Amino acid sequence: MPAKASIVFAHGLWADGSCYGKVIPALQADGHQVVSAQNSLDTLEGDVATVTRALGRVSSPAILVGHSYGGAVITAAGTDDRVSGLVYIAALAPDESETSQSLQEQFPVTDVFSHIEIADGRIWLLPSGIGCFAGDLSEQEQSLVWATQGVPDANLFNQKLDGTAWRTKPSWYIVANNDRTVHPDLERFVAKRMGAHTYDVDSSHVPMLSHPDFVLDVIRAAANSI
94: which strand partners? Predict the structure, then answer.
């Protein structure tokens, strides 16, 4: 058994694997093996497969960390026997009968959806929407996040897979109180439903970028419990 749990990250919409760049170096310095998967955002099945392949590149046991739609990914991928815990960051966490879309429809529509455009079968975040996504970052950093956005297939949120890892594995959840992308009430609902160790932070949708030390503490707590 390795001395420390491995960490595998899954990103969400309008992001890529580098969105965890402020927390990865510290985790590596702590002695964790770390991989941040690059999800294509084409299909849920494909993104789950990407994260599952990443599990094969690190030692077990592993902690999965999912942000936003990445929470739906780790909910399915986390049923893998190599996964011992789940960390959700302002994330979706659908139940067996839900899709990401049907889960969101139970809560008020957030501001970001007034700033999207569907073109070429993908959902693009417009420049006017970056403040709804990452409004507590500097203007320069917001511009970088927008420029490197991962653009999802228009049907991605209507897809679902079998497997609900949070029903059987310990979970940690970071609620972003000032989120204008995933509704904070949704975050609190799914955190309570899964019985997660829950942490609140006054953050936009991207606390791993705006409050990296806070996010690090939660990931460390999860990893140290394994």
Answer: none
The pLDDT score that the predictor gives to residue 147 is 97
Vertex 203: Cα angle to 201 and 209 (nearest 5): 110
Beta bridge partners of 88: 66, 173
Beta bridge partners of 66: 10, 88
**pLDDT on residue 3:** 73
| E strands in the chain | 6-10, 34-36, 62-67, 83-89, 116-119, 122-125, 171-176, 197-201
Distance CA 54, CA 196 (A): 24
Question: Prior bond to 61 cis, omega within 30?
Answer: yes
Q: Report mean pLDDT in 10-residue bins for the chain, 226 residues.
A: 85 97 98 98 98 98 98 98 98 97 97 98 98 98 97 97 97 98 98 98 98 98 95
Residues in the chain: 226
- Helix 44-55 × helix 70-77 angle, to 10°: 60
**What are the tokens at 68?**
């936003």
Q: What are phi and psi of 52, to 5 degrees?
A: -65, -40
Rounded to a whole number of angstroms, the CA Rg of the chain reads: 16
Q: Can you give the pLDDT at residue 226?
A: 86
